[in-house]
Amino acid sequence: MHAPALAERPVVPGPTALEPESSARPARVHGEPVAVTVDNVVKAFGETAALHGVSLDIVGGELIALLGPSGSGKTTLLRVIAGLEFPTSGRILFGSEDASQRTVQQRNVGFVFQHYALFKHMTVFDNIAFGLRVRRRKTGIAEDTIRTRVMTLLDLVQLSGLDQRYPAQLSGGQRQRVALARALAIEPRILLLDEPFGALDYKVRKELRRWLRELHDETGHTTIFVTHDQEEALELADRVVVMSNGRIEQVGSADEIYDEPATPFVYQFIGDSSTLPVMIHGGKVSLEGRQLRLASARVPDGPARLFMRPHEFNFVGDETGAISGVIKNERRHGPRRRLEIAVGNGDHMIEVEVPPTADHRPGSRCSLLPKQFRVFSDAG
Amino acid sequence: MSDQTLQNAPAARFRRSTTESFAVRTTLIVLSVLFLGVFLLFPLAVVFVEASKQGMGAYLEALQEPDALSAIKLTLLVAAIAVPANLVFGVAASWAIAKFDFRGKPFLITLIDLPFSVSPVIAGLIYVILFGTQGYLGPWLQSYGIQVVFAVPGIVLATIFVTFPFVARELIPLMQEQGRQDEEAAISLGASGFQTFCKVTLPNIKWGLMYGVLLCNARAMGEFGAVSVVSGHIRGQTNTMPLHVEILYNDYQWAAAFAVASLLALLALVTLVVKTVLEWRFGAELATARRH
């Protein structure tokens, strides 16, 4: 051991779900007034629980993403907020008023479905006007006003001139924009989007994503959208809520989620990562009984897992490396090249990204120094 | 170059993999057409030929005879009650099955199919046992002067029983396929349950519904077995068209029997034509419904 052990980067405490919540609920997050509060919501479908006591504050005007794999409860949470599902226990607050007992109709939320759910037998105009027309008895809104509003919205979603088309005559991207205009027509308190771009192909999805961001900046609606696409969540949202198994794993900005994952799940789910089962003793990290030149002061003694990103490695000389191994395999990975390296006794593989021109032959030994790493104790 | 090669190539080489040889194809087609001709078209033609054998005058006379007229009226009346009733039941049942989750749903679906699997004669007997003079409810109802069996109410009940599945069976797969999203979108936009049903659900199912009603109506007018048991065959009172045809036939009144039968057959043909038009015009929407 010639060089001192590389220390784990200190973790900035962020607003993660794992920290104990204070009993008094904050009325503000980062100084902004809270628009929607999810208060300890449990949702069970028969025997199986889809949400295990989820709490979340959403700021007015915020664009927030619920991100997670399928079955993580993200869509259920969105539907509970909308009132399409009722929580088994817990409350939903809009501002300071309890919305839990309110019906969907009374909540006045704009909901956009993955498969658009446009009314096939109605023109684009009638689809957008639907919400205004069904409330006409209560609001007394004039047909002229409806017409003006619909035309303004069509303009906003860049579909002017298509008002007499039927949904079947539109492309997927256009349909989703009609669905969005229809949801915006009722001037919702919040806008809820369930996998809004999930049914569209990659190019259209990227285009609509940028467009939605612009639209949000223009209209300022508090918006919650569900996605399983991390690229979409990280690129689009002010804050990302990472969910797994009906629980919130972490809430934070794209940077916080990516650079400071709060849990092993977040580290693995966001971006690529390699993991090694290690032992911690007195802040020192060892793999299969051999000490690595890595230090983790935060983690208690005992079994733990070491996480690293493929693009955060340096190849170094033997005397300064933290991990050594044998290159087993190499393959092209987009603009880069990926090496699979067997470490320890050769039972564990890690992935390392190198420039495409780099010359690393399979079979050769190498010594690596991770630029970043995280250790999570198995004790939790 | 390659285009020309393709054009000059013998067509047979590109035969679809599922297509059989000429001989097999011809045999199958001829067999089907022959079968349909002998068992379906020929008898149908005979009905019309026999009906018109005695000339147009006798034909019209047979239809204007008081008992025949009463049978036609009764048939129309029964259909006019049974079809709307089944329309309401069918929509309600398929709505419940497609849009809600509840315990015993598979049982309800099986129950809806029951009239298809039970012999119509048994359906008729059920009502005789229930409402007959020696039945469970018959004496009690009779003390209030209500006659069910051997009267119009019994015929209506038996017809409703037999024709119940048509609308529901048509709508359940259609509504299940459509899911709940349209309705959820409507209520999230502020529509009430009734508004959602009228403006969203009904337009979504209208062609399937029409198709179901059509089949239901054809069966309601043509039903023989169940109605025969409960009707009592009282001429001019409880005879529907199919029953009247049988009576005329048993009385050796061939021309009259075929005249009334031709009217029933005509109804079947009209149903068939409307059904075909619906399928042709709204094929895609009906495809899901017919997949059961």
Describe this protein's structure.
The complex is a heterodimer of chains A (380) and B (292). Chain A is an alpha+beta fold. Chain A has helices spanning 74-82, 104-107, 124-134, 136-139, 143-156, 172-185, 202-219, 230-236, 254-259, 264-269; strands spanning 6-7, 28-29, 32-45, 48-59, 63-67, 89-94, 97-98, 109-112, 190-194, 222-227, 239-244, 247-252, 274-281, 284-287, 290-295, 302-308, 313-316, 323-333, 336-343, 348-354, 365-370, 374-377. Chain A has ten helices and 22 strands. Chain A has a six-stranded mixed beta sheet with strand order 1-15-14-13-16-22. In chain A, helix 3 crosses helix 5, helix 3 runs parallel beside helix 6 and helix 5 crosses helix 6. Residues 1-5 and 288-292 of chain B have low confidence and may be disordered. Chain B is 79% helix and 0% strand. The N and C termini of chain B lie far apart (50 Å). The A-B interface holds A 82-84, 103-105, 108-111, 113, 115, 117-121, 130-131, 134-135, 179, 182-183, 185-186 and B 181-182, 184-192, 195, 199-200, 203-204.
Helices and strands in order:
The complex is a heterodimer of chains A (380) and B (292).
Chain A: E1 6-7, E2 28-29, E3 32-45, E4 48-59, E5 63-67, H1 74-82, E6 89-94, E7 97-98, H2 104-107, E8 109-112, H3 124-134, H4 136-139, H5 143-156, H6 172-185, E9 190-194, H7 202-219, E10 222-227, H8 230-236, E11 239-244, E12 247-252, H9 254-259, H10 264-269, E13 274-281, E14 284-287, E15 290-295, E16 302-308, E17 313-316, E18 323-333, E19 336-343, E20 348-354, E21 365-370, E22 374-377
Parallel strand pairs in A: 1-15, 5-10, 5-11, 8-9, 9-10
Antiparallel strand pairs in A: 2-3, 3-4, 3-6, 6-7, 11-12, 13-14, 13-16, 14-15, 16-22, 17-21, 18-19, 18-21, 19-20
Helix pairs in contact in A: 3-5, 3-6, 5-6
Chain B: H1 2-8, H2 22-51, H3 55-64, H4 66-99, H5 105-117, H6 120-131, H7 138-143, H8 152-178, H9 181-188, H10 193-222, H11 225-231, H12 241-250, H13 254-281, H14 283-290
Helix pairs in contact in B: 2-13, 3-13, 4-8, 4-10, 5-8, 6-8, 6-11, 8-10, 8-11, 8-14, 9-10, 10-13, 12-13, 13-14
